[in-house]
Design the sequence.
């Protein structure tokens, strides 16, 4: 995939964080690892059997099950539901969307007869034209290009080991493309603007909107008793994809998130982390990125030139930014918002 592919950095993020907490009980299925981070609260991550499995959270109450995020396709969400059935037979009654992006929301149709909760903006995006969103189209195009390249390499190779590897990759890509054809996006039928609290079977589950960040409708799901927060892509252990983001506002949004009393952060991609200082690192990066892009734009550089020349290497020690340059998607987004503000 090209550097501008939306979730390339999220895939590599999973190997970049070190964890120090005591081992948790883990249930593993063919497609998922369900890590019990508190009694009846599970952090669901993919095993690699399906491509681009975003993270999810599963909360088992005394009466039912609440799921946060539904993965990238109906096939992926069906696999999640099957995995949940290995830990409980209680009915899944509620799905919460952290935001509208395809890798978190396009599996919602597999959840039958459940209440779907999300921010007002998330509903707006999912009832509009979600299959025409540039993030979704870019990934689909990347898969198609990748498939063409893999088939070309298969035709050219004479090495049997390489042939086997390429054939497996081709089957993997084809399975994802086919799974995507099934998608019929489903919007939340319950929306909130700032805060919503669910009291279910002895659990308190808070849904917070702290401001614009990864999208205009990111929500964090907070369990106050367990001191756990699921942040979707508003906060990862490193830099999120910024192509739909509000970089100039993101740091303030994360500052509002800090008002919650949590000790464990469950991100939308990558492993759990506990070090709140990582929030500071990400805030500083977004602030500096916005300043650097604004500076270079005022100097007359194009978005492509700015993406190549932006110097964020001061974040090398904290976020591993060792070379000059920034995501072109991020720079184009900042330029877009600056143009809108100047209209």
Sequence:
């Amino acid at each position: 995939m090209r550097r501008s592919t939306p979730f390339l950095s999220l895939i590599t993020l999973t190997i970049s964080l070190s964890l120090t907490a005591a081992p948790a009980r883990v249930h593993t299925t063919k497609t998922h690892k369900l890590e019990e981070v508190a009694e009846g609260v599970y952090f669901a991550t993919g095993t690699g059997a399906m491509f681009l499995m975003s993270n999810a959270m599963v909360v088992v109450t005394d009466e039912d099950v609440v799921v946060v995020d539904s993965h990238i396709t109906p096939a992926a969400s069906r696999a999640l539901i099957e995995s949940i059935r290995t830990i409980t037979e209680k009915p899944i009654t509620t799905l919460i969307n952290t935001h509208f992006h395809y890798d978190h929301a396009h599996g919602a149709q597999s959840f039958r007869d459940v209440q779907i909760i999300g921010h007002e903006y998330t509903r707006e995006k999912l009832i509009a034209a979600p299959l025409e969103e540039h993030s979704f189209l870019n990934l689909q195009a990347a898969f198609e290009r990748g498939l063409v390249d893999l088939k070309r390499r298969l035709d050219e190779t004479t090495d049997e080991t390489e042939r086997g590897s390429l054939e497996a990759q081709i089957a993997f890509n084809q399975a994802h493309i086919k799974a995507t054809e099934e998608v019929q996006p489903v919007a939340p039928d319950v929306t909130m603007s700032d805060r919503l609290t669910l009291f279910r079977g002895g659990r308190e589950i808070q849904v917070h909107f702290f401001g614009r960040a990864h999208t205009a409708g990111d929500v964090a799901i907070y369990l106050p008793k367990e001191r756990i927060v699921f942040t979707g892509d508003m906060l990862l252990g490193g830099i999120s994809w910024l192509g739909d983001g509000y970089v100039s506002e993101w740091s303030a949004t994360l500052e509002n998130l800090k008002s919650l009393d949590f000790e464990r952060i469950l991100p939308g991609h990558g492993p759990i982390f506990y070090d709140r200082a990582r929030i500071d690192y990400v805030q500083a990066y977004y602030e500096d990125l916005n300043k650097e892009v604004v500076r270079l734009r005022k100097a007359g550089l194009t978005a492509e030139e700015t993406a190549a020349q932006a110097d964020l290497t001061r974040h090398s020690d904290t976020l591993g930014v060792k070379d000059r340059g920034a995501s072109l998607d991020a720079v184009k987004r900042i330029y877009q918002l600056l143009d809108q503000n100047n209209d």
Q: What stands out?
A: DSSP finds eleven helices and 13 strands in the chain. The radius of gyration is 20 Å.
